[in-house]
Amino acid sequence: MTAAPPVHNNGEQEQEQQHDQQCALVKRAEDEREDIFKRYELGTDPSNKVDSWENPTFEIYHKTDKYGFMHAACLPSSRDSEEAQRIKIELERDKKWVKMLKDWPPPHEKLHKRVYKGIPDRMRWPAWKKLLNVQQSMDTNEGIYARMLQMAKENATETRQIDADVNRQFRDNVAYRERYSVKQCSLFNILNAYSVYNSELGYCQGMACVAGVLLLYMQEEEAFWALNTLITDPKFGMHGLFIEGFPKLTRFIEHHDRILSKLMRKLHKHFIKHNVDALLYAIKWFFVVFVERVPFSLSLRVWDIFLLDGDRVILAMAVTILYLHKDELLRLKDMDAIIEYLQVKLHKNFGYNDDDAVQALERIMKKLRDLKLDVPPPAKSNEFPTRELGVFVEADRDKKTGQRRDYTNTEKQVLTDIMSRQEHNAIEVQSTVSYETSECATGDAYSMKTYQSMTSLATSTANSSYSLCSNGYVITTTTNGPDDNRSQSVNNLNYAAWQYQQQHHHMHHDRLSNPRHSYSSDNSDSRNRLDLDRALEPLQSQHMLHLQPESHHHHYQQPSIKQSPHGTRILVQNQNGIAGSVAPHGKQQILNNQHKDELNHNIDNDVEDDDDALSVENTRL
Amino acid sequence: MATTPRSGGSNSGAAQRPNGTSQNKSCQFKLVLLGESAVGKSSLVLRFVKGQFHEYQESTIGAAFLTQTICIEDTVVKFEIWDTAGQERYHSLAPMYYRGAQAAIVVYDIQNQDSFQRAKTWVKELHKQASPNIVIALAGNKADLSNIRVVEFDEAKQYAEENGLLFMETSAKTGMNVNDIFLAIAKKLPKNDNNQGSVIKPNGNEPTQTTNNCCK
């Protein structure tokens, strides 16, 4: 560290004092880091002082599932026939996977089929390593991990945050339950080492969860390189999610909104009406790929597919969740209940078994591909590392002492993007009158007009054209009519223009060097228009098949609603009841085969539930 | 005291009690929690809304949203609570949560000096960027660990007074002062129907239904 030259001028004593304070702060941060590292090096050694609150009591009534997660209630003591059958199948699959792993890489179709069926849990270690090129990374980077870890001990700036997060990550899992257990130490090491290896990214909350999952299946160094692949390989591109300003998050949420507005317009409007912004539920979904938001076993299945097919799986899974629970979500009439449903209930009980959920995901992926909505617009360069990895860059003083700094340009841009997206959504809802009379609006006493006045009440600073209510930004200026439609269509045109380029020029999108010029450019010329026709073609033809109102799509009778003792709403289904039902906690609703067929049939026919949306598109054309 | 929050604020189905006290005024306020990572923001909310405490509260990614309703005198107050992620990296999303908020609780950890400094930074930012009438409370959390405190009560109290903040030391673990700080905020918020700060939701379902009995 270089000391600043001494200041001799009179009156600048204060400056000097400030400098000393800064140095003291740096020193303190360094000492703290050293101290925390020491504790992890000691691990479970008895000389390592652990505060009493840091270790849980090992309650004997806790029961552990096959993934190491402990549950408050006892797990069933005997296996039912279905469980026994599943185990038998998994054993068979083990054998096939052992063979396939020896003969890597397998033909794509075979691999695809087997991954979608679910990688057998015992095979996840070797399979995930293959899918993430772990061995290759380790071979080409021999010794680097150890060096990074050493460097982290001397220079890491995120140690305190990592320590705080390791102390609460997966504490309900036996591997992480004990303070300074082997896995806790590995997690701590990986995250510190990675914060130095990819110094531009450092550490972001969420990474502990991702690395934590990897560590459940891998050794420390393997997990480090697996994490690196997830972060830096454009196929997964998590760098863009975790970097300051979260540029990829905005891009993905925009696309998620786009998909919703095209395929599940009613739900989309329902969400906007109740102030449920995608940002609310999607951050966690996207950042940790659905861990802790759906049952762990299902999130592993999604991870399997994510590791095979990359980040588009995240978007498809988001749509799948909303699709499978659409009916129930439409019945929830306030933001509170909707958020609780998405953040808590689905984690406890997804309402569909994993196989059915994954089948739905697969079909929705196909649907999105057919509609050319599976891939979001390309990334801007700020989503990828620009600094060379593994090269030491000394952090500046602010970073060392954890001082607040001004927003970066990316952060400013992202905030603007989010605001304009929310603004856009608000306009869209307010400009749609038909919603008032639609099925999902029934039972709501207040009209959009009231809603509008309500949101403007919430605003205190009336210095902008939009007002900010509850969860964000709601337009209060009444700007319905053709202008709004135009802005919507410009947005779509730009997206279509990008699609056009992708399809017709067979461009290999070098994501690093190709900012979204075609996407963001404002040229709504005839070529784009032509392509919009093309892009909507599949939508239109399907639209023709589904002119009946949405309520007729459902092939089951309207279920009656009963109040459960927990206050959870339960749908009492008739024999054919399927979608959107949620059983009370602890009681998984398993669909029988007949239901499965019907479910699949429904995804094909039902996913574009949105007749009025399409007709809007059509009239615009 | 009528301060005990009823559970079920986050579950609209939980309370379908008849015999309403529908003449009650009902207000709805947006409240945001800010503060450094791991100071106990989510734990405070969990204690207030559900009466629970998790030793290992998972770290908040992005933000969480919960509601709770309390009664003061003849007014039913529903808090829409936005619990934010504490890591500095998530700071850029904070304006989305605190804009339009009528109240904020800035939380620090009494055994962590840095978290107190960060709390001051948040207060400064709120004064500069949030709505001018925002009611800000400062919460020195983890008060159950006061034997190893680093931030002195008087120091924080003085700072709060100088800056016009409500101040309490709280413990999400024991529940100490948790309801009280929310109640103090509710008392300070303007509850006039025509007041700019308060919002009466026209459909009124939630506030009246979930709190019919809370004033008894």
How does this model look, in words?
The complex is a heterodimer of chains A (621) and B (216). Chain A has a two-stranded antiparallel sheet with strand order 1-2. In chain A, strands 3-4 form a two-stranded antiparallel sheet. In chain A, strands 5-6 form a two-stranded antiparallel ribbon. Chain A has 29 helices and 6 strands. By secondary structure, chain A is mostly helical. The radius of gyration of chain A is 26 Å and the shape is globular. Among the domains of chain A are: 35-49 and 56-74 and 104-232, Helicase, Ruva Protein, domain 3 (Orthogonal Bundle); 247-383 and 404-434, Orthogonal Bundle (Cyclin A, domain 1), CATH 1.10.472.80. Chain B is α/β, with parallel strands linked by helices and 216 residues long. Chain B is built from 6 helices and 6 strands. Chain B has helices at residues 41-50, 94-98, 113-129, 153-162, 178-188, 205-211, and strands spanning 25-35, 63-72, 75-84, 103-109, 135-141, 166-169. In chain B, strands 2-3-1-4-5-6 form a 6-stranded mixed sheet, sandwiched between helices. In chain B, strand 2 (63-72) and strand 3 (75-84) form a beta hairpin. Chain B is globular, with a radius of gyration of 17 Å. The model of chain B is unreliable at 1-21 and 194-216 (pLDDT under 50). The interface between A and B is large, with 65 and 59 residues.
- Tell me the fraction of residues in β-strands of chain A, as a range: under 5%
Strand content of chain B: 15-25%
Task: List how many beta strands of chain B DSSP finds.
Answer: 6
Largest sheet data of chain B: 6 strands, mixed
- Choose one word for the global shape of chain A: globular
Radius of gyration of chain A: 26 Å
What is the mean predicted local confidence, pLDDT of chain A?
75
Cα end-to-end separation of chain B: 9 Å
Number of domains of chain B: 1
Spatial extent as radius of gyration of chain B: 17 Å
Write down the secondary-structure element order of chain B. EHEEHEHEHEHH
User: What structural class do you assign from the helix and strand content of chain B?
Assistant: alpha/beta
CATH first level of the domain at 247-383 and 404-434 in chain A: Mainly Alpha
Percent range for helical residues of chain A?
55-70%
Q: In CATH's first tier, which class of chain B applies?
A: Alpha Beta
